[in-house]
Amino acid sequence: MFHRESRVGLKIKIVGVSILILFFVSGVFADEDPKETELLFMAKKAYEDGFYEVSLGMLERFQKNYKGSVKATQATLLSAECYFYQGRYLEALNILEALSSSPQADNLKDAIYFWLAEVHSKGNNFQKAAVFYQKLIDNFPQSSFIPAAYYSLGWSFSQLNEFNQAMQTFKSLMEKFPNEPQSKDAAFKLIECLYNLKKYYELKAQIKPVFKLYSNDQIRLPYLYFYLAESEYYLDDFDQSAKDYLKAAQVFKEPKVQALAKLGLGWSYLKLAKYKEAEEVLVDIKSTALDKKSLDIFLLGQAVLMSATNRVYEAKKLYEQLINLGADQLISLQAYLGKADAHYNLAEYAQAINIYKEALDKINQAADQDSLPLELIDKLNYNLGVAYIKQGQINSSLDVYNSIIENDNGLAIKINLLFQIGQAYEDTQEFVKAEEIYEKIIKLYANSADADYAQYQLACVQFKRLDYDQAITSFRLMLKKYPQSKFIPDAWYTLGMAYFQQADYSKSCEVFVKFKD
Fold first, then answer.
1. Would you say 353 and 388 are in contact if contact means Cβ atoms under 8 Å apart?
2. Does the pLDDT at position 42 exceed 80?
């Protein structure tokens, strides 16, 4: 998110101090021309003041007039630094590579590694930059460049999306050099890494002290609120995420990141079913401030809002727009689900079935289907099964039931779908088939929270088909097996009615007396 400007000034200071020390040490202990020392000192001063072209002119004169100087390698390195700050990276690279293989430059090898890494970093070759930062850290642990090298190595890893390595590097920097300014920057980058790794629990746990570090930083502070809000959102703490998205949106100055914070705020309100607030926020977002993926999320949020507020036709148009735009795979599948649900809500079951099936076909063809949320896949399957029932295709609904994988969420989906199928059979007075479904639930899912309801429904179906003996047995079993069930009063009442239908009035009376108590 942030570049490394904060440490560039520090870098100049480090190099400036180290080279000036070398100048004065060599001036004290060697019999040298004072003009040589003065010329190199003036070149260094021009470099520190940002007059790189002037410094290069002096350094060229130095190399010409003092070819055999012991300070020649220092002057050459300084030339490379001047080229670097002028953006002439290829010239800087050629000089640094020559120095790296020169025995005369062994005492400057840590600086050479550092600047080689910097040049490669500027060329976006972060892999090669990381190699040189690591060399510096491994071979020169006492170098003044070490804190900056640790930070830049972590930054290179983050640019390569190797966030675990970046995180470990930033942690090492903070542990080894807690008082260096780079450690403060590393604390912020560590939060960014956790965010990119989607380690929301850890992010939320570690972000509090970072807020203290950046309490007066008007650039980074909004991002901290945003990262915190994101972690809260994905941890389903929507009340708190709404508060922190709002804080981020209020303090962000840059329109693009402010729009992202508002988008998160709008989605938090949607999750909280605060549809009026969600609409006010979403209307206020300028779509031109969003990138392609964020725009898709924005359109999906609008579509969800339309669905939730019964504006079904508007929702359907937005879902179609998302599908036609070739949105991100996950967003596209959510759009398919929303569009199919819209057709379902309009009682257009055949169209809904086709769209559910199209979405599931896309999932089956996807190379990375394991990365898709099982909850979404289960929802598509369940809704397809229910749409089949509405269309009168109960056998097709059973096929869907058999295709659902029994994961944590899938188990509940399968049980709910079986209840829907059982009810459909009851509605068409196919009581034997309904009975088979409820028996299946009791047998396969005896430990589920719905087993008591399945037993109750089984007894009721038997009552409906006038098999009072079997109904009485099933009700008695339910009363014994599930004494805490919320369906106990209904079971007692229907049991009494079963005895009454058998003309066993004494038992019927006994049950009704107990039911009354």
1. yes
2. yes
